[in-house]
Each structure stands twice: as C-alpha cells, then as structure tokens.
Design a protein that fits this description.
The protein has helices spanning about 10-20, 25, 45-60, 80-85, 90, 105-120, 135-150, 160-175, 185-190, 210-220, 325-360, 385-395, 425-445; strands at about 65, 125, 150-155, 175-180, 195-200, 225-230, 250-255, 270-275, 285-290, 300-305, 370, 380, 400, 400-405, 415-420. By secondary structure, the chain is of the alpha/beta class. It is globular and about 75 Å long.
Length: about 450
C-alpha cells in the first residue's frame, strides 16, 4: 500500500480542524522520556532511488525452490482467485462489522465461512474466526473450565511446543492447573476433577492419533471431561475422518493452509468449532442469518459476541478483541475454489508424496524413520549428520526440514520433514540425493 506523507500545510489544516495549536500539544499526554526528538535516518530519496534501495534490501531474503519445512506453517498451492477476492477494497479496508446494516457483505462472508467450516469438520458450531491456532487452543482450554467448573486440564504429548507455551501463558493468567502426560499414562491422570484433555492429531511429530480410542479412554475414567483436538494443517480433512464424527467436544485448528501465504510466520487464522450445547460459551463472534419482521428479505447480524468487551469485562468468557476476517475470507475462497474433490486431491498428494520420501529415505543406511503410527505430510527421521543435511539443502536451494533439537535438546540428530503438494518428485529426489551426500560427509569425518 502506497504511503504519501502529509505536508506542513495539510498538518496545519488538520490541527486547526480539531482545535489544537501544534503537534507538541497533540501529543502532550505522552511522557517526555518516551519522545524521540530526532530519528537517526539518512536523508530523503527520490522515488526511483527509494524503490531501488528497497528492492536491494529485499534481495537479502532467501527464496527456496522447494521447502521441506512444516512444523505449523505450510507451503500449499494458493489459487490466484484468492488474492483477487481479498484485495477488493470493500473487504481489505473493512475492520469489524459493528453496524450490521452497513456491513452486510462482510457479515455474509463470515456467515458463509462459519457454514463451510462446520460442514468440513462436521461440528455443530463454528465462530467467525480467531487470531491463530495456538490462541484458539488456549481459548478452548479456558472455555472447558467455564463449562465444567473445574480448574485443571491435561496436555497430551505431541502438541506443538509453541501452542503449549501459549496455552500455559493463558492458563497461568487464569490460575488453571496444567498436567502433562503421554498416551500410555493418560488413564492414570484422567480424573473427575479434570476439565479437559487437549491433544493434537496429526501431532507435532506427524503421527495420526487413534481418536476414537483416546476418547473412549477419557470417557471411561471421567464422563464429564471434555476432549479438545487441535490441528496445524487441516488440509488432511480431505482424507481423514472429521472431528465431528468422533465425538470431539471442541475442535480448533490453524487455518493458514487454507489460502494464506506462510510469509514470515503470519498472519494465521484460528478455526474454532464446538458442539451445539456449548454455543453460548464459545469465544469470539457468531454471525447469524435472519428475516425481516414484515417482509421476505433476509439479512446477516452479529448473533452472539461472547467477548463482553463493552460491559462486565471481568466476567467475560473471553476478552479476545477482534477476528481474522480477511484471513477467514481467504480460507472461504480457498475451500470454495477447490471444492470437496479438490481438497481431497490436495490431501492425497500430501499423503502420497510424504510417504514416498519416507519410504525411500528409510532405504538409505543411517536414516531411521521414528514414527510408529500412520502419518500425513510430516514425519520424524533420525539422521547420521543432520547439520550436513541442512547445509546441503541450503546450498542446493531447498528449504531444509526442522532440526527438532530447537524444541527438544535431547533430539540432537532428529529432523521433522514435511512434504506437500508443492514438492515435485524432482525436488524430493534431490532431497534424497542430498541425504546420501550427508551420509558420505559423516563417513569422511570419521576417517579424519
């Protein structure tokens, strides 16, 4: 978006219009120790020189030909239609629909988003989006304690470590007790005083969990305990059973895979769904459709705002203050553009290409696939020399997989590898070639 600075005459006119004599007077409420008299900036440039300089700076960014990095942010194909739709001024300049009569277009888009997410997940209710997957999970944890009137939740091993950190931060502020466990010891931790069990599937390591078995184990020990599922790449719903078919109480996900560029890690899109009976406890907004009292026309309204921004903030079920309306519009456009068959094709390609790499990688001596469950488009592999593999990938214009020791120091030579429909067979075979080169590099080090 272009920026055109105000000249002195325009500034003078604006100050006169609001009855202020100077900029200093306008900013008088800012503490003096926070005011910077002069920025240490170079002198101004002409527009051509400025554009040249910005382009030069942008070339510092590394654009890889193919990526094997996932871990919560994914490279998927984005149809050109999406940028066309969300770039329309009536969408990208809108903020929030406080005046329903003046915001029918955006309210309808949000209503349609809720509808398509409910259909995709087979959950009863979807809200009009949240910040991202991690904060949606944290809000779900808090919501479970409000519903059950219990003050403890369990985090199952395999949740994205950054998501877990956000949940812990939210729960710390609410004095909610957090327990951590793995699937084997879950039955010993689930008790009647637990509000919810939170788990991720496919999890951070790529494993697809047996959700029906997990829910059964929880219900047998604590019938009133809620089960909350989070997902970081919901394109898998093109082939996996939807959460609504497995008696999940609250399902949340990161919607970045639905038509949003990875960019520098954002923006994201928080998908939040739940059962009908928990509708009034859901955070954020719900958009509804209604008819005229005396007429046949219909319109869209803000049916529910559980934020309680305006009154009783201390009693609010959530204090979230906005939504990702533009991002949810992108997700809506993406899902409509692909349709049921298109999303299924995306999911099949993700599954098959990742399976191909996993199978071929396991044939290379020194590489061991560590997943013991089915996986979608991510898996973990023990490498003979992970640093060499990462360096070779960078040198050959491939974005390398994640070195898991970033989050788990004990996993020194283990990589989390991701493959999507954007990875060609040529790039996958190149990765395999580099994996062999990394193995030879290890042998050379041993000889020295």
């Amino acid at each position: 978006m272009d920026f055109i600075p105000h000249d002195k005459e325009t500034i003078k006119e604006m100050l006169e219009a609001i009855g202020v004599k100077s900029l200093k007077e306008l900013f008088q409420d800012i503490p003096k120790d926070l005011i910077i008299d002069k920025l240490n900036l170079p002198s101004g440039l002409s527009e051509p020189d400025l554009l040249f300089q910005i382009k030069k700076i942008s070339q510092k960014n590394k654009n890889y030909s193919s990526s094997f990095l996932g871990a919560g942010c994914y490279y998927h194909y984005i149809p050109s239609l999406i940028d066309f739709v969300i770039s329309r001024s009536e969408f990208y300049t809108s903020y929030t629909p406080y005046q329903a009569e003046a915001s029918q277009g955006y309210l309808q888009a949000m209503y349609e988003y809720q509808t398509i997410i409910s259909q995709l997940t087979q959950m009863d209710v979807s809200n009009a989006s949240m910040y991202d997957g991690s904060t949606a999970l944290a809000e779900a944890a808090i919501m479970s304690t409000i519903i059950t009137r219990k003050n403890s939740v369990i985090l199952l091993k395999g949740i994205h470590p950054e998501y877990e950190e956000v949940v812990r931060t939210y729960c710390w502020g609410q004095n909610i007790r957090i327990l951590s466990t793995d699937e084997e010891d879950l039955h010993t931790k689930v008790k009647n005083e637990i509000a919810a069990v939170l788990f991720q599937s496919p999890n951070f390591f790529g494993d697809i969990e047996d959700i029906s078995k997990l829910i059964k184990n929880v219900r047998e020990k604590a019938p009133n305990c809620l089960v909350i599922q989070v997902m970081t790449d919901p394109t898998c719903l093109g082939v996996l059973n939807p959460p609504g078919s497995t008696d999940i109480d609250i399902f949340v996900a990161e919607g970045q895979s639905f038509g949003l560029n990875p960019s520098f890690g954002g923006p994201g899109l928080g998908i939040f769904t739940t059962k009908q009976k928990f509708l009034r406890k859901i955070p954020g907004r719900l958009i509804g459709k209604t008819n005229e009292i005396n007429g046949k026309n219909y319109g869209f309204i803000l049916t529910l705002q559980a934020r309680e921004q305006h009154i009783r903030r201390e009693r609010a079920s959530s204090n979230i203050c906005t939504n990702q309306a533009l991002c949810s519009l992108a997700a809506l456009t993406y899902l409509l553009a692909l349709g049921r068959n298109g999303l299924r094709e995306v999911a099949i390609q993700n599954f098959q290409k990742a399976h191909y790499l996993k199978k071929e990688l396991s044939k290379i001596k020194g590489y061991e696939i560590l997943n013991r469950k089915p996986t979608y488009n991510e898996f973990i592999v023990k490498c003979p020399n992970i640093d060499a593999l990462i360096n070779f990938c960078k040198q050959n214009n491939l974005q390398p997989p994640l070195k898991l020791s970033k989050y788990y120091p004990e996993m020194g030579n283990i990589a989390l590898v991701c493959v999507t429909e954007m990875n060609s067979k040529k790039s996958i075979d190149k990765f395999l070639e580099l994996a062999r080169s990394a193995l030879n590099s290890k042998k050379e080090e041993n000889l020295k």
